[in-house]
Amino acid sequence: MCAFDKSRKEEIFTKAVRAGKRTYFFDVKVTSNGDKYLTITERKRKVNQRTGEFFYEKHKIFLYQEDFDKFTQGLSAALNFIKTGQLTEEESKVFDQIDEAELLSYLSDFDEAENK
């Protein structure tokens, strides 16, 4: 599904991608001052173990225009690594620029979330 809808004030474009039990939504929205940004939502159908009823679990990220290039570089590097098992020299440079304290904080948050 791909749509462009001027009648919805904030959301101006959406693309839904079905992938197994998950659906990904790529929505372009506009802030009140006219800046565009992207939201990526993952929706996964799950079953409540007690009631047997279906529900949807959602996760969302917001990506702003000033971050598009860095996000794209990081995503490309991760996908390339999955495919080849290694980073290119250029991709290595991008990751070398990440602040070590920021990375350690991220990894700590990730470990805490995994252990819950």
Short description:
The protein is of the alpha+beta class and 116 residues long. It is built from 3 helices and 5 strands; from the N terminus they run E-E-E-E-E-H-H-H. Helices cover 34% and strands 38% of the residues.
Describe the overall structure.
With 116 residues, the protein is of the alpha+beta class. It has a domain at 2-65: Nuclear Transport Factor 2, Chain: A. It is built from 3 helices and 5 strands, in the order E-E-E-E-E-H-H-H. It has a 5-stranded antiparallel β-sheet with strand order 1-2-3-4-5, with no helix packed on it. Mean pLDDT is 83; it is low at 4-8.
- Largest sheet, spatial ordering of strands: 1-2-3-4-5
Using the coordinates above, name the CATH class of the domain at 2-65: Alpha Beta
Structural class: alpha+beta
What best-fitting shape do the alpha-carbon axes yield?
A: extended
Q: What would the average pLDDT be, to the nearest integer?
A: 83
CATH fold label of the domain at 2-65 = Nuclear Transport Factor 2, Chain: A
Helix content bin: 25-40%
- Distance from N terminus to C terminus (CA atoms, Å) equals 36 Å
Order of helices and strands: EEEEEHHH
- Count of DSSP helices? 3
Largest sheet: 5 strands, antiparallel
- Sequence stretches where pLDDT stays below 50 over 5 or more residues: 4-8
Q: How large is the radius of gyration?
A: 18 Å
CATH architecture of the domain at 2-65: Roll
Strand percentage lies at 35-45%
Q: How many DSSP E strands?
A: 5
